[in-house]
Write a structure and sequence with these properties.
With about 300 residues, the chain is an alpha+beta fold. Helices cover about 35% and strands about 15% of the residues. Helix 5 links the parallel strand 7 and strand 8.
Protein backbone atom coordinates (compact mmCIF):
# COMPACT_ATOMS: atom_id res chain seq x y z
CA UNK A 1 0.00 0.00 0.00
CA UNK A 2 2.83 2.37 0.89
CA UNK A 3 4.55 1.75 -2.44
CA UNK A 4 1.29 2.33 -4.32
CA UNK A 5 0.59 5.59 -2.51
CA UNK A 6 4.16 6.70 -3.11
CA UNK A 7 3.80 5.95 -6.83
CA UNK A 8 0.60 7.98 -7.03
CA UNK A 9 2.26 10.90 -5.29
CA UNK A 10 5.27 10.72 -7.61
CA UNK A 11 3.01 10.62 -10.65
CA UNK A 12 1.14 13.72 -9.45
CA UNK A 13 4.41 15.52 -8.79
CA UNK A 14 5.65 14.58 -12.25
CA UNK A 15 2.51 16.01 -13.84
CA UNK A 16 2.87 19.21 -11.85
CA UNK A 17 6.52 19.53 -12.84
CA UNK A 18 5.57 19.15 -16.51
CA UNK A 19 2.81 21.73 -16.17
CA UNK A 20 4.99 24.21 -14.29
CA UNK A 21 7.95 23.72 -16.63
CA UNK A 22 5.76 24.32 -19.67
CA UNK A 23 4.32 27.41 -18.01
CA UNK A 24 7.65 28.93 -17.12
CA UNK A 25 9.24 28.07 -20.48
CA UNK A 26 6.48 29.50 -22.62
CA UNK A 27 6.04 32.49 -20.34
CA UNK A 28 9.70 33.35 -20.85
CA UNK A 29 9.13 33.09 -24.61
CA UNK A 30 6.37 35.73 -24.31
CA UNK A 31 3.75 33.73 -26.20
CA UNK A 32 0.84 35.04 -24.11
CA UNK A 33 -1.51 37.96 -24.71
CA UNK A 34 -2.01 40.95 -22.47
CA UNK A 35 -5.65 40.91 -21.37
CA UNK A 36 -6.44 44.56 -22.13
CA UNK A 37 -4.78 44.35 -25.55
CA UNK A 38 -6.72 41.20 -26.32
CA UNK A 39 -9.99 42.83 -25.25
CA UNK A 40 -9.46 46.23 -26.89
CA UNK A 41 -6.29 46.54 -29.01
CA UNK A 42 -6.87 50.27 -29.59
CA UNK A 43 -7.40 51.16 -25.91
CA UNK A 44 -5.09 53.86 -24.51
CA UNK A 45 -2.22 52.47 -22.47
CA UNK A 46 -3.30 54.45 -19.40
CA UNK A 47 -6.94 53.21 -19.50
CA UNK A 48 -7.87 51.22 -16.39
CA UNK A 49 -11.20 50.10 -17.86
CA UNK A 50 -12.69 49.65 -21.33
CA UNK A 51 -16.35 49.10 -22.26
CA UNK A 52 -17.35 46.68 -24.97
CA UNK A 53 -18.50 48.36 -28.18
CA UNK A 54 -20.76 45.50 -29.20
CA UNK A 55 -23.03 44.08 -26.50
CA UNK A 56 -25.46 41.83 -28.38
CA UNK A 57 -27.22 38.73 -27.01
CA UNK A 58 -29.24 35.95 -28.64
CA UNK A 59 -33.00 36.41 -28.54
CA UNK A 60 -34.94 34.61 -25.79
CA UNK A 61 -38.70 34.12 -25.73
CA UNK A 62 -40.53 35.49 -22.70
CA UNK A 63 -39.06 37.13 -19.64
CA UNK A 64 -35.30 37.10 -19.37
CA UNK A 65 -32.48 38.16 -17.06
CA UNK A 66 -28.68 38.08 -17.02
CA UNK A 67 -26.12 35.98 -15.20
CA UNK A 68 -22.72 37.62 -14.74
CA UNK A 69 -19.23 36.17 -14.73
CA UNK A 70 -15.84 37.63 -13.94
CA UNK A 71 -12.80 35.98 -15.49
CA UNK A 72 -9.58 37.13 -13.89
CA UNK A 73 -5.93 37.64 -14.76
CA UNK A 74 -4.54 37.98 -11.22
CA UNK A 75 -1.17 39.60 -10.64
CA UNK A 76 0.29 37.95 -7.56
CA UNK A 77 2.44 39.87 -5.12
CA UNK A 78 4.87 36.94 -4.93
CA UNK A 79 5.86 35.51 -8.35
CA UNK A 80 6.69 32.17 -6.69
CA UNK A 81 3.18 31.81 -5.26
CA UNK A 82 1.96 28.40 -6.49
CA UNK A 83 -1.19 29.84 -8.08
CA UNK A 84 1.01 32.17 -10.14
CA UNK A 85 3.06 29.25 -11.46
CA UNK A 86 -0.10 27.35 -12.37
CA UNK A 87 -1.47 30.48 -14.04
CA UNK A 88 1.56 30.57 -16.34
CA UNK A 89 1.02 26.91 -17.13
CA UNK A 90 -2.55 27.61 -18.19
CA UNK A 91 -1.37 30.41 -20.46
CA UNK A 92 1.26 28.22 -22.05
CA UNK A 93 -1.08 25.34 -22.88
CA UNK A 94 -4.20 27.10 -24.14
CA UNK A 95 -5.26 26.28 -27.70
CA UNK A 96 -8.00 28.87 -28.34
CA UNK A 97 -7.39 32.52 -29.21
CA UNK A 98 -8.65 33.96 -25.93
CA UNK A 99 -7.22 36.39 -23.35
CA UNK A 100 -5.01 35.07 -20.55
CA UNK A 101 -7.45 34.39 -17.72
CA UNK A 102 -7.03 31.92 -14.85
CA UNK A 103 -9.82 32.31 -12.29
CA UNK A 104 -13.60 32.58 -12.60
CA UNK A 105 -16.56 33.68 -10.50
CA UNK A 106 -20.31 34.11 -10.91
CA UNK A 107 -22.82 36.70 -9.74
CA UNK A 108 -26.43 37.77 -10.18
CA UNK A 109 -25.79 41.51 -10.18
CA UNK A 110 -22.92 43.72 -11.31
CA UNK A 111 -22.05 44.63 -7.72
CA UNK A 112 -18.50 43.85 -6.61
CA UNK A 113 -19.32 40.68 -4.65
CA UNK A 114 -19.02 37.70 -7.00
CA UNK A 115 -18.97 34.08 -5.82
CA UNK A 116 -15.66 32.35 -6.49
CA UNK A 117 -14.36 28.95 -5.40
CA UNK A 118 -10.83 29.00 -4.02
CA UNK A 119 -8.71 27.15 -1.49
CA UNK A 120 -8.79 28.35 2.11
CA UNK A 121 -11.32 29.18 4.76
CA UNK A 122 -14.41 27.47 6.10
CA UNK A 123 -16.52 28.75 3.21
CA UNK A 124 -14.45 28.05 0.11
CA UNK A 125 -17.17 29.36 -2.19
CA UNK A 126 -16.89 32.93 -0.97
CA UNK A 127 -17.62 36.47 -2.10
CA UNK A 128 -14.80 38.15 -3.99
CA UNK A 129 -14.48 41.94 -4.09
CA UNK A 130 -12.00 43.14 -6.70
CA UNK A 131 -11.66 46.56 -5.11
CA UNK A 132 -11.20 45.12 -1.60
CA UNK A 133 -9.08 41.98 -2.09
CA UNK A 134 -8.01 41.77 1.54
CA UNK A 135 -11.49 40.50 2.43
CA UNK A 136 -10.84 37.23 0.56
CA UNK A 137 -8.18 34.64 1.41
CA UNK A 138 -7.33 34.08 -2.25
CA UNK A 139 -7.51 37.65 -3.52
CA UNK A 140 -5.39 39.12 -0.72
CA UNK A 141 -2.31 37.65 -2.43
CA UNK A 142 -2.97 39.82 -5.50
CA UNK A 143 -2.20 43.41 -6.49
CA UNK A 144 -5.55 45.10 -7.31
CA UNK A 145 -3.89 47.87 -9.34
CA UNK A 146 -2.21 45.40 -11.71
CA UNK A 147 -4.65 42.48 -11.65
CA UNK A 148 -7.21 42.45 -14.46
CA UNK A 149 -10.67 41.10 -15.15
CA UNK A 150 -13.23 40.83 -17.94
CA UNK A 151 -16.91 40.79 -17.00
CA UNK A 152 -19.23 38.64 -19.14
CA UNK A 153 -22.98 38.11 -19.15
CA UNK A 154 -25.23 35.28 -20.26
CA UNK A 155 -28.84 36.00 -21.17
CA UNK A 156 -31.19 33.38 -19.69
CA UNK A 157 -34.87 32.98 -18.95
CA UNK A 158 -36.15 34.49 -15.72
CA UNK A 159 -36.78 30.97 -14.39
CA UNK A 160 -33.23 29.86 -15.24
CA UNK A 161 -31.88 32.94 -13.50
CA UNK A 162 -33.78 32.19 -10.29
CA UNK A 163 -32.85 28.50 -10.40
CA UNK A 164 -29.18 29.30 -10.91
CA UNK A 165 -29.20 31.84 -8.10
CA UNK A 166 -30.80 29.38 -5.67
CA UNK A 167 -28.38 26.65 -6.77
CA UNK A 168 -25.27 28.78 -6.14
CA UNK A 169 -26.55 30.31 -2.91
CA UNK A 170 -27.25 26.83 -1.55
CA UNK A 171 -23.54 26.08 -1.91
CA UNK A 172 -22.43 29.51 -0.63
CA UNK A 173 -24.46 29.17 2.55
CA UNK A 174 -22.99 25.77 3.40
CA UNK A 175 -19.50 24.43 3.93
CA UNK A 176 -19.68 21.16 1.98
CA UNK A 177 -18.23 22.46 -1.28
CA UNK A 178 -14.44 22.27 -1.47
CA UNK A 179 -11.77 23.47 -3.85
CA UNK A 180 -10.34 20.11 -4.96
CA UNK A 181 -6.67 20.86 -5.61
CA UNK A 182 -6.13 17.36 -6.97
CA UNK A 183 -8.38 18.17 -9.92
CA UNK A 184 -5.72 20.59 -11.12
CA UNK A 185 -3.43 17.64 -11.80
CA UNK A 186 -6.10 15.91 -13.88
CA UNK A 187 -6.89 19.06 -15.84
CA UNK A 188 -3.17 19.90 -16.19
CA UNK A 189 -2.32 16.49 -17.61
CA UNK A 190 -5.30 16.64 -19.98
CA UNK A 191 -4.43 20.19 -21.08
CA UNK A 192 -0.80 19.32 -21.79
CA UNK A 193 -1.94 16.34 -23.82
CA UNK A 194 -4.40 18.48 -25.77
CA UNK A 195 -1.77 21.13 -26.52
CA UNK A 196 1.20 18.97 -27.44
CA UNK A 197 -0.07 15.50 -28.29
CA UNK A 198 -3.45 16.04 -30.00
CA UNK A 199 -4.19 16.81 -33.64
CA UNK A 200 -5.32 20.35 -34.39
CA UNK A 201 -8.74 18.95 -35.37
CA UNK A 202 -9.42 18.20 -31.71
CA UNK A 203 -7.73 21.11 -29.91
CA UNK A 204 -10.37 23.82 -30.11
CA UNK A 205 -13.27 24.14 -27.71
CA UNK A 206 -16.21 22.09 -28.98
CA UNK A 207 -13.98 19.64 -30.88
CA UNK A 208 -12.06 18.13 -27.95
CA UNK A 209 -12.11 14.38 -27.32
CA UNK A 210 -12.43 13.77 -23.58
CA UNK A 211 -11.49 10.64 -21.62
CA UNK A 212 -14.18 7.95 -21.76
CA UNK A 213 -14.57 8.23 -17.98
CA UNK A 214 -15.60 11.91 -18.22
CA UNK A 215 -19.27 12.63 -17.63
CA UNK A 216 -21.75 15.39 -16.96
CA UNK A 217 -24.23 14.98 -14.15
CA UNK A 218 -27.78 16.24 -13.85
CA UNK A 219 -28.50 16.75 -10.16
CA UNK A 220 -31.72 15.63 -8.55
CA UNK A 221 -32.33 18.93 -6.77
CA UNK A 222 -34.82 17.33 -4.40
CA UNK A 223 -32.15 14.94 -3.12
CA UNK A 224 -29.62 16.63 -0.84
CA UNK A 225 -27.22 13.72 -1.24
CA UNK A 226 -27.13 14.05 -5.01
CA UNK A 227 -25.19 17.33 -5.11
CA UNK A 228 -21.47 17.15 -5.92
CA UNK A 229 -19.01 19.08 -3.76
CA UNK A 230 -15.52 18.85 -5.25
CA UNK A 231 -14.55 21.32 -7.97
CA UNK A 232 -12.13 23.96 -9.11
CA UNK A 233 -13.52 27.39 -9.99
CA UNK A 234 -14.18 26.74 -13.69
CA UNK A 235 -15.60 23.23 -13.31
CA UNK A 236 -18.03 24.49 -10.66
CA UNK A 237 -19.39 27.15 -13.01
CA UNK A 238 -19.68 24.59 -15.80
CA UNK A 239 -21.57 22.29 -13.43
CA UNK A 240 -23.88 25.13 -12.37
CA UNK A 241 -24.72 26.10 -15.94
CA UNK A 242 -25.20 22.51 -17.07
CA UNK A 243 -27.75 21.99 -14.33
CA UNK A 244 -29.67 25.23 -14.70
CA UNK A 245 -29.36 26.76 -18.18
CA UNK A 246 -30.93 24.70 -20.96
CA UNK A 247 -28.97 26.28 -23.83
CA UNK A 248 -25.66 25.48 -22.13
CA UNK A 249 -26.76 21.96 -21.24
CA UNK A 250 -27.84 21.28 -24.84
CA UNK A 251 -24.60 22.72 -26.22
CA UNK A 252 -22.50 20.53 -23.91
CA UNK A 253 -24.48 17.42 -24.83
CA UNK A 254 -24.46 18.10 -28.57
CA UNK A 255 -20.70 18.71 -28.62
CA UNK A 256 -19.80 16.15 -25.97
CA UNK A 257 -18.24 18.83 -23.72
CA UNK A 258 -17.46 17.68 -20.19
CA UNK A 259 -17.55 20.37 -17.52
CA UNK A 260 -15.08 18.49 -15.28
CA UNK A 261 -12.31 19.39 -17.77
CA UNK A 262 -13.26 23.03 -18.36
CA UNK A 263 -10.53 25.65 -18.12
CA UNK A 264 -11.39 29.23 -17.18
CA UNK A 265 -11.02 30.49 -20.74
CA UNK A 266 -13.38 27.78 -21.98
CA UNK A 267 -16.19 29.55 -20.14
CA UNK A 268 -15.82 32.59 -22.41
CA UNK A 269 -16.51 30.34 -25.43
CA UNK A 270 -19.91 29.08 -24.26
CA UNK A 271 -22.52 30.29 -26.81
CA UNK A 272 -24.23 33.46 -25.66
CA UNK A 273 -21.43 34.41 -23.26
CA UNK A 274 -20.87 38.09 -24.05
CA UNK A 275 -18.07 40.37 -22.86
CA UNK A 276 -19.30 43.58 -21.21
CA UNK A 277 -16.19 45.38 -20.02
CA UNK A 278 -12.55 45.08 -19.01
CA UNK A 279 -10.96 46.65 -15.94
CA UNK A 280 -8.21 46.42 -13.41
CA UNK A 281 -9.49 45.05 -10.11
CA UNK A 282 -9.17 48.42 -8.40
CA UNK A 283 -11.27 50.14 -11.07
CA UNK A 284 -14.04 47.52 -11.24
CA UNK A 285 -16.68 49.65 -9.40
CA UNK A 286 -15.96 52.60 -11.70
CA UNK A 287 -16.12 50.38 -14.77
CA UNK A 288 -19.43 48.82 -13.71
CA UNK A 289 -20.98 52.27 -13.18
CA UNK A 290 -19.73 53.46 -16.56
CA UNK A 291 -21.13 50.35 -18.21
CA UNK A 292 -24.66 50.78 -16.89
CA UNK A 293 -24.59 54.44 -17.90
CA UNK A 294 -23.70 53.34 -21.43
CA UNK A 295 -26.19 50.45 -21.38
CA UNK A 296 -29.14 51.53 -19.17
CA UNK A 297 -30.86 48.15 -19.52
CA UNK A 298 -28.38 46.85 -16.93
CA UNK A 299 -29.03 49.61 -14.40
CA UNK A 300 -31.22 47.30 -12.27
CA UNK A 301 -28.22 45.03 -11.70
CA UNK A 302 -26.08 47.67 -9.98
CA UNK A 303 -27.03 48.94 -6.56
CA UNK A 304 -24.52 51.77 -6.26
Amino acid sequence: MFKQNSRIKLNKNYILILFVSAGLFFQSCKTTQVVKEAFAPEAPEEATYVLSEDVVFPEIEGNYKYLFFRLYNPEYSNPLYIANILKNGLKATKTDDVPDLSHASINFTLDDNYYGLTLGGKHQLAEEECAVPLNNKYMKHCDPERSEQITYALKVTAEEYENTKAFVERYAEGTDIKYASGLNFKIAFFTIGKKFFTSKDHQQFGTIIYPKSAKNKKVDKEDEDDYDNNFVCSTFIGYVLYNNVESTSEFFDENDIKYEYLNVTDLSLIPGMTALFYSTWASYPEAARAFVEEYPEFNEYLSN
